[in-house]
């Protein structure tokens, strides 16, 4: 029961099937499930896939929907393979997990001035996810290097979030085209 000052939690339950896009196994949220989430962008969730624990960030698909990456470790634990039907139960998590910082951004942060490192640690985990998404949103190595450099520069000037990119776009270039999750074939 939600009391004064507490947030109402959003339990989402659905059945879907595992799909492979490129080398990524994922599950797409049905329209109703996606619409019940509090954002068209990323949403931190906890829950289960076929009864096996999951803590992740649900990704936007660029079409006002969402998808969830199903990592190999979870697939193995649950005995899942692409095409299998799955039961997913997720609840919006009160906190964000730490983003996996890619090696190039991590190296730049490690050698950045102390003020940049302090800024990085001072921002919220959600903001760190946004910086990581922005850096990862390109397959072009020159653009990516420039984004790492700009991230350091912006953090050094006090910016807490990257600017000017669509948070509801699918930003993983391995599963998207033009900001949209590649459709099933």
Quick take:
By secondary structure, this protein is α+β, with helices and mostly antiparallel strands. The protein has helices at 31-35, 72-78, 103-111, 114-122, 125-136, 141-156, and strands spanning 11-21, 24-28, 43-49, 52-60, 66-69, 85-92, 176-177, 180-181. Helix content is 31%, strand content 26%.
Structure description:
The structure is a single chain. The protein is an alpha+beta fold and 185 residues long. Helices cover 31% and strands 26% of the residues. Strand 1 and strand 2 form a beta hairpin. Helix 3 runs parallel beside helix 6, helix 4 crosses helix 6 and helix 5 packs antiparallel against helix 6. The longest helix has 16 residues. It is globular and about 50 Å long. The N terminus is likely disordered.
Main pleated-sheet profile? 6 strands, antiparallel, barrel
How confident overall, as mean pLDDT? 92
**Apparent shape:** globular
Q: Hey, roughly how much beta strand do the residues contain?
A: 25-35%
Radius of gyration: 17 Å
Number of strands: 8
Terminal Cα span: 43 Å
The helix/strand order is: EEHEEEHEHHHHEE
| Adjacency order of strands in the biggest sheet | 1-2-5-4-3-6
User: Structural class given helices, strands, pairing?
Assistant: alpha+beta
List the total number of helices.
6
> What number of structural domains do the residues give?
2
Percent of residues in helical segments? 25-40%
Low-confidence stretches: 1-6
What are the main properties of this structure?
31% helix, 6 helices, 6-stranded antiparallel barrel, two-stranded antiparallel ribbon, 2 domains, Elongation Factor Tu (Ef-tu), domain 3, 26% strand, alpha+beta, 185 residues, single chain
């Amino acid at each position: 029961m939600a009391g004064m000052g507490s947030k109402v939690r959003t339990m989402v339950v659905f059945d879907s099937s595992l799909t492979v896009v490129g080398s990524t196994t994922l599950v797409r949220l049905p329209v109703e499930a996606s619409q019940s989430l509090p954002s068209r962008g990323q949403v931190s969730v906890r829950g289960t896939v076929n009864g096996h624990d999951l803590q992740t960030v649900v990704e936007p698909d660029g079409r006002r929907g969402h998808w969830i990456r199903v990592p190999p470790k979870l697939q193995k634990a649950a005995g899942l393979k692409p095409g299998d039907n799955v039961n997913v139960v997720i609840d919006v998590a009160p906190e964000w997990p730490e983003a996996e910082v890619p090696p190039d951004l991590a190296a730049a942060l490690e050698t950045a001035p102390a003020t940049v490192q302090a800024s990085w640690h001072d921002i919220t985990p959600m903001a760190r996810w946004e910086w990581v998404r922005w850096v990862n949103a390109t397959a072009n190595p020159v653009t990516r290097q420039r984004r790492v450099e700009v991230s350091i520069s912006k953090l050094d000037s006090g910016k807490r979030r990257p600017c000017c990119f669509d948070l509801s776009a699918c930003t993983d270039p391995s599963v998207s085209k033009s900001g949209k999750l590649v459709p099933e074939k």
